[in-house]
Each structure stands twice: as structure tokens, then as C-alpha cells.
UniProtKB/TrEMBL annotation:
Pfam families (alphabetical): ABC_tran
Source species: Micromonospora pallida
PANTHER family for this protein: HIGH-AFFINITY BRANCHED-CHAIN AMINO ACID TRANSPORT ATP-BINDING PROTEIN LIVF (PTHR43820)
Family (UniProt): Belongs to the ABC transporter superfamily.
Name of protein: Amino acid/amide ABC transporter ATP-binding protein 2, HAAT family
GO molecular function, one term: ATP binding
ATP-binding in keyword set: yes
Domain of life of the organism encoding this protein: Bacteria
SMART domains: AAA (SM00382)
Key words, A-Z: Amino-acid transport, ATP-binding, Nucleotide-binding, Transport
Boundaries of every ABC transporter domain copy: 22-253
């Protein structure tokens, strides 16, 4: 068993004084005539990692897509640093500092690590690209070691770090990450969870969806349970890990 994860958390300190970087109030969204999100409320602070858990099909991915603008907000409010974005395009939200790292790998496999980072920063002015690449290598040193290697030859876990690094190129305020540990060995999953901490340490608010909820809650500052399109429960990562109902229903652990 690893050391107490609370001692290594990067998250914002208790009793947040600044305003949240991301605020959702009564957010409704869905597909055609099916409403999936039915009144989501959420606050995310800079430097904080919040993990969303829930049953299959509960709408976790839909939540991330709604914040990014890939799924329309039908009702309610989404604010980034106090600015309403719920009617904005994904491009406009990117401009506000919201980045989505979708499920699966989406790098350019035949291009080098460094070329991929440049692609991640293609909207940036030239000087910012160099700074972004530096930031990426400082945050994820293994990528610096592999900078000339084709992305497709990296291990699955390293490719996931590359996805995060491409998001970090944009100096984001909010990173939305869907299932970063999917399909990885347990050792690789540990590296990815450690990388999430490194990402949040850039004063980024991280909203994470993870099947591997036990590991995710160990690195997250807070967890949220989504049920029937609403936040049914929320608390610190460790409170969620200790909650008998959460353990039984979502973590596959004895109550
Ligand atoms: N493009 C779409 N059109 C119609 N229905 C969709 C679409 N995408 C997702 N859904 C449905 O919306 C519901 C929520 O899906 P979502 O992927 O958000 O769930 P999830 O909680 O992320 O699930 P999982 O843990 O299985 O990934 C599911 O019933 C799904 O079938």
C-alpha cells in the first residue's frame, strides 16, 4: 500500500477563498428527446482534481462533453472564471482555457512527441509554443527523453501523458479528462494518476471521469457521484472511499 495519498495531493487547500474556475448550476443536457443531465451543480477550483463517478451510462462522459460544448446545454449555467460559456462554441471555450482530453488516444502516431506537442499548440503564438514545450517536458520528463520518438511507439501510458501534455500546451484553466487509465496495466495506471497531480499543480482545475474509481479517488481532492442526471453525493476523495454506500455501489468494495 502506498503512503497516505492525502499527503501528496496537489489540490487547493481547504476553505477555498478564490472563486471557482468552473461553476455549473442546474445544467441540463442530453441527446434528441432523452435528457441525460438533469440539473448538475458543480464547483471546481484551480489546482483541484474532482473525480466524477457513477454507473455505466449515468452521463459522466456527457458531462465532460457538455462543459466543452460538444453537447448543447439545454438549461442552466456554465461559467469559467465567472464568465458564462454555455452558449459558446468549443473553439470559444478553448479560448477561455477549457480543454478536453477525450477517451482513447488521439495523438498523431507517426509524428514525433515534439511534433505532437507543436500540433497541440498550433493556435498559439510562436513564443508560447516553445514555452509550452518546455512546460510539458518539465511536467512529464519522460516525454523530453522521448521527444524524437514517434508517438505511436510510446507505451499506452506514455501516450496518455502525451495527451495531457498536448492539453497543457494551451496553458489551460480547466482540463476535462475522460478515462485516462483505460486499457493500461496497473503500473501504467499509477503513472497516469501521478501525472494528473502534476497537471493540477499548474493551477489547473481537473475534472476527471474514471472507471478505476478507487485509484482516482485516492488522487482526487473531491469525488462526485452522478445518479439520475444529478450529483447525488459529493465529498473529499477519502470521505468517498470511506462511504459505505459509495463503496458498495460504485467501488466494488465491502461496506
Ligand atoms: N451521441 C449520442 N446520442 C444518443 N445517446 C447517447 C449519445 N452518447 C451517449 N448517449 C447515451 O447517453 C447516456 C449517457 O452516456 P455517457 O457516455 O455520458 O455515460 P457514462 O456515464 O460516461 O457511461 P460509461 O461509464 O459507460 O462511459 C447513455 O445512455 C448513452 O447511451
Amino acid at each position: 500500500m502506498a503512503a497516505d495519498p492525502s499527503s501528496t495531493r496537489t489540490g487547493a487547500t481547504a476553505g477555498h477563498h478564490q472563486q471557482p474556475v468552473l461553476t455549473l448550476r442546474d445544467v441540463h443536457a442530453g441527446y434528441q428527446d432523452v435528457e441525460i443531465l438533469r440539473g448538475i451543480d458543480l464547483d471546481l477550483h484551480r489546482g483541484e482534481t474532482v473525480c466524477v463517478i457513477g454507473a455505466n451510462g449515468a452521463g459522466k462522459s456527457t458531462l465532460l462533453k457538455t462543459v466543452f460544448g460538444m453537447v448543447a446545454t439545454r438549461r442552466g449555467s456554465i461559467r469559467v472564471d465567472g464568465v458564462e460559456v454555455s452558449r459558446d462554441s468549443t473553439r470559444a471555450r478553448l479560448g477561455r482555457g477549457v480543454v478536453l482530453v477525450p477517451q482513447g488516444r488521439c495523438n498523431f502516431p507517426r509524428m514525433s512527441v515534439e511534433e505532437n506537442l507543436r500540433m497541440g499548440g498550433y493556435t498559439l503564438p510562436r513564443g508560447a509554443v516553445a514555452a509550452g514545450i518546455e512546460r510539458a517536458y518539465r511536467t512529464f520528463p519522460v516525454l523530453g527523453e522521448r521527444r524524437g520518438q514517434a508517438a505511436g511507439n510510446l507505451s499506452g501510458g506514455e501516450q496518455q501523458l502525451l495527451e495531457m501534455a498536448m492539453a497543457l500546451m494551451l496553458d489551460p484553466k480547466v482540463v476535462l479528462i475522460d478515462e485516462p487509465s483505460l486499457g493500461l496495466s496497473p503500473a501504467m495506471q499509477q503513472r497516469v494518476f501521478a501525472a494528473l497531480r502534476a497537471l493540477a499543480a499548474h493551477q489547473v482545475g481537473v475534472l476527471l471521469v474514471e472507471q478505476n474509481a478507487v485509484q482516482a479517488l485516492k488522487v482526487a481532492d473531491r469525488g462526485l457521484v452522478v445518479e439520475w442526471g444529478r450529483v447525488a453525493k459529493s465529498g473529499t476523495g477519502s470521505a468517498m472511499l470511506d462511504d459505505p454506500d459509495v463503496r458498495r455501489a460504485y467501488l466494488g468494495l465491502p461496506a
